[in-house]
Amino acid sequence: MTDMVETSARILRLLSLLQTPREWTGPELAQRLDVTTRTVRNDIERLRRLGYPVHATRGSAGGYRLEAGTALPPLLLDDEEAVAVAVGLRTATVGSVAGIEESALRALAKLERVLPARLRRRLNALQTYTVAVRPARPHPTVPPDLLTTLAAACRDHERLRFDYRAHDASASRRDVEPYRLVNWGRRWYLIAWDTERAGWRTFRVDRMEPKIPAGPRFAPRPLPDDDVAAYVSRGIAEAPWRHRTTVTVHAPAEAVAERLPASAGQVEPVDAETCLVRTGADSAGTLAVWLGALGTDFSVSPERDPELAAALGALADRCRRAVSGTRS
Fold it and tell me: 83 — phi, psi (to 5°)?
């Protein structure tokens, strides 16, 4: 019985090593497991019989690696991995991808049935004492096959044709070079080069209706920003801005950037103690309140932005009246 337990534990350790993205030689595995290379070969065969596709290459530079197979073998997870998978499956039941709720619940039920009691207790506590806030309005969802189609087009550098419905309900036909999918909250976005408009565009995936088949392949071009997530969040935030401005903030750019999300605007250093913030809002009044909450001194040119200067003056007067208790 002791030998069987030791063998099972060793095979688990072997599988854990093979799951790392590299190729292992027989002697390396033998040294890690403190066994002979013959034992390693026998354990490799046991894994293959269980359904794990372990590939071996011969020669001095050869070794073993785990490849994807045609069927799903038994998954072996440690405690933290099992909890992470369970939490992810539960989150997927209320996520932004349509049609996977039932599949996620089935997979979660299977996982919970085989979890040790100590892990079931942790997950039950999480389920019992966690409350999800449902959105006030139905959130947009996308089918999983649409996401995989777009991701494959990005991977294979294939042009996409699709009908698109903009935020103002206007419809258009687009022909683009797709590059990245970005998930922001409950929404999915596609970054693509619009061939007709000769520029980068960000598209809401739930407003797309792709046309099949995909178009010809294209030669990839440099992305518009190294941080595509920040690029998308800036573009989304700026889209509804009716009032845009540039403000001089009397604080280091690094300190201001830490306080502002990427969606709030762009921060550009001027010197060690000053920076420019290019930002905006739906109105000058809203922007005045937001700048007042920034927590540092800033300057606005009345000549360049008289509307914002007036809004700041009105806000300052209102605050003074609030403190003095007077009303005019």
Answer: -65, -40
The tally of CA atoms less than 13 A away on the side-chain side of residue 197 is 13
Q: Is residue 153 exposed (0-12), middle (13-18) or buried (19+ Cβ within 10 Å)?
A: buried
- Model pTM score: 0.58
In tens digits, the chain (328 residues) has pLDDT values of 445 445 667 887 888 888 777 889 999 999 999 999 999 999 999 888 877 888 888 766 668 988 876 555 666 677 787 888 888 887 776 666 766 777 777 888 878 877 888 888 888 887 787 776 666 566 677 888 888 889 999 999 999 999 999 877 788 999 999 999 988 777 889 999 999 999 999 999 999 998 877 778 999 999 998 888 878 877 776 666 788 889 999 999 999 988 877 667 788 899 999 999 988 888 899 999 988 888 899 999 889 999 999 999 999 999 988 888 776 5
Q: How far apart are the first and last CA of the chain?
A: 90
Q: Would you call 75 helix, strand, or coil by DSSP?
A: coil
Q: Give the C-alpha separation, 316 to 195, whole Å.
A: 48
